Automatic annotation (TrEMBL):
Gene Ontology MF annotations: glutaminyl-tRNA synthase (glutamine-hydrolyzing) activity
Region Disordered, annotated ranges: 489-509
SUPFAM superfamilies per UniProt: Amidase signature (AS) enzymes
Domain of life: Bacteria
Domain Amidase intervals: 112-464
Protein name as it appears in the record: Amidase
InterPro entries referenced in this protein's UniProt entry, alphabetically: Amidase, Amidase_dom, AS_sf
Pfam families associated with the record: Amidase
Coiled-coil region: none
Organism per entry: Thetidibacter halocola
Length: 550
């Protein structure tokens, strides 16, 4: 079949999709030589590009003059509380507590693993937070850790501690379905790099936690992952199962990923503590790629110190992830916060801010550190979202062009299928300009953190959710308090920005958690963790458990 002839009317119609306007003379000039440009694109589409093939260009968050911190090493706390009699109290214990009990012989990894497997069996049918549970593997790994313990050997703070892994990461011989119907029977023949690292650290894999299809939202091919504080609503996404399982005590910790809110958003919804590390700190090899220049891997836990212990096990450059950067990681649970300078954007605590937000800022001021108002340059931060749409559409081009996108459950206007289709009309020239805008945003945040050590604010603080994800700056999100809210709606990317549906939609209300975010300098997670630890203690709300799990 011959290629259709391009007319000047076609060009004029296309202009409206691109937000531009040419003259009749300009259309006449280009109408005869567009076929080569189109033909090149068609030829390229014939080349199979699996999800594992990266971009040749690499994002590096470091601006000229950046100096890498030199401090290295993690020093955790050493709690001396006795082992509780109640299994639920054990299930919700902190990682330092669990590690101490295992090291002393008061608790075996097998018993702890059995506690979590039992809780998964009872509560997962209500929460839909595990896509795959691997009891035989978990018990075998636990027994191996107990043998090492008996020999007086330990692999570190995570020795013998069970965790849940977001179902974006390959696990040899175990279904890794990415939450999406086209991949629900996908069985990889190797392990992702972080799976190997966690095994080397002694952690025990309980199973694969659910992920919103292709790393967005909380809807996957098995249903909707639930918030344990209100099972009538979803847990937000895309690390939906990781946050839900951790909040409900169905694992000691979990692994999440964030492209734009996928660690911090479900942590906001479920009341967990999520740490999104600096871009490039943790390898993504063996994980599903959504956006090569944005994807990040981090822990979801029930406390601040826990996230530090997990990040220490994950940290490190990897030749199989071209974007990783060798960087030290330092955290000392006993380090004070004297001399820190904390900033906040005043508009973030204005109209729309909740009592929890204001209480969190007041608690931070009561810590005795300097707290100052700051500002950011007036830039179109939200425009950067088109980069996400383009990279994601490229990562799953075959779904769009092969009509496999129709098999995904979520088909709303803001869902991936429609977003991928619209992305085909984004301009390549505009994307080059967006990359240059991204550089200006990198300079803006670099300037911000030259004046302060940490920025505090609500999850949706001004442009920070978008801006900091695009610049690669780390973010710690921790529970700050509770609100009475009705069931909240799912997230949407349909308006060109991420919204988490936090608005009260009416009806019966539930007491649900709300968090606060701390942003810090590149590769300086230790500072936001130290402040987060102090703030966590001051707020005193981290230990409360969802009523479902009692």
């Amino acid at each position: 079949m011959p290629e259709p002839t391009i007319t000047e009317a076609d060009i004029e119609a296309a202009e409206r999709l691109m937000g531009i306007a040419y003259t009749a003379r300009e259309r006449a000039q280009m109408v005869g030589n567009l076929s080569g440009q189109i033909g090149s694109a068609v030829e390229r589409r014939k080349v199979d590009l699996p999800n594992s093939v990266p971009m040749s260009l690499r994002f590096d968050p470091r601006l000229p003059g950046f100096v890498m911190p030199t401090a290295d090493g993690v020093t955790g706390s050493k709690p001396d509380a006795p082992l509780p009699d109640d299994d639920t109290d054990i299930a919700f214990a902190t990682l330092p507590q669990l590690g101490g009990w295992i090291a002393s012989g008061a608790l075996t990894s097998r018993r702890l693993t059995e506690i979590y497997l039992d809780r998964i069996a009872r509560l997962n049918p209500q929460l839909y937070c595990y896509a795959q549970v691997t009891p035989d593997l978990a018990l075998a790994e636990a027994d191996a850790m107990d043998r090492l313990t008996a020999e007086g050997k330990t692999l570190g703070p995570l020795h013998g501690i069970p965790y849940g892994l977001k179902d974006l990461f390959d696990t040899r011989g175990i279904v890794t379905g990415w939450g999406a119907e086209p991949y629900q029977h996908r069985v990889p023949d190797g392990d992702a790099r972080i799976v190997t690292l966690l095994r080397q650290a002694g952690a025990v894999l309980l199973g694969k936690t659910t992920v919103g299809a292709l790393a967005y939202n909380d809807i996957w091919y098995g249903g909707v992952t639930r918030n344990p504080w209100n099972t009538e609503e979803g847990s937000s996404g895309s690390s939906a199962g990781s946050a839900s399982a951790t909040a409900a005590g169905l694992c000691a910790f979990s692994i999440g990923t964030e492209t734009l809110g996928s660690i911090t958003s479900p942590s906001q919804r479920c009341g967990t503590t999520g740490l999104r590390p600096t871009f490039g700190r943790v390898s993504r090899a063996g994980g599903m790629a959504l956006c090569w220049s944005l994807d990040k891997v981090g822990p979801i836990c029930r406390g601040v110190e826990d996230t530090a212990l997990v990040l220490a096990a994950l940290n490190g450059a990897d030749v199989d992830d071209r974007c990783t950067i060798a960087a030290p990681f330092a955290f000392d649970a006993g380090k004070g916060i004297e001399g820190l300078k904390l900033g906040y954007l005043p508009e973030a605590f204005g109209e729309g801010a909740t009592e929890v937000d204001h209480a969190a800022l007041a608690a931070a001021k009561a810590l005795g550190i300097e707290v100052v108002e700051v500002s950011l340059p007036d830039l179109p931060y939200g425009a950067l979202m088109n980069t996400l749409y383009a990279e994601a559409a490229a990562a799953f081009e075959h779904l769009t062009l092969g009509d496999l996108d129709d098999t995904l459950t979520w088909q709303d206007d803001g869902a991936w299928p429609n977003t991928f289709r619209k992305a085909r009309f984004l301009s390549a020239v505009d994307h080059v300009q967006l990359d240059r805008l991204r550089y200006l945003v990198m300079q803006a945040l670099d300037g911000l953190f030259r004046d302060i050590d940490v920025l505090i604010g609500p999850f949706m603080t001004g442009p920070m959710l978008v801006a900091s994800n695009y610049t690669g700056h780390p973010c710690l999100h921790l529970r700050a308090g509770f609100q009475q809210l009705g069931t909240r709606s799912p997230a949407s990317l349909g308006e060109g920005k991420l919204t988490t549906g936090e608005a009260d939609t009416g009806g019966k209300t539930h007491r649900v958690p709300q968090g606060i975010s701390l942003w810090g300098r590149l590769f300086d997670e230790g500072t936001i963790l130290s402040l987060g630890l102090a703030l966590e203690a001051k707020l005193g709300v981290a230990a409360e458990r969802p009523p479902l799990t009692a």
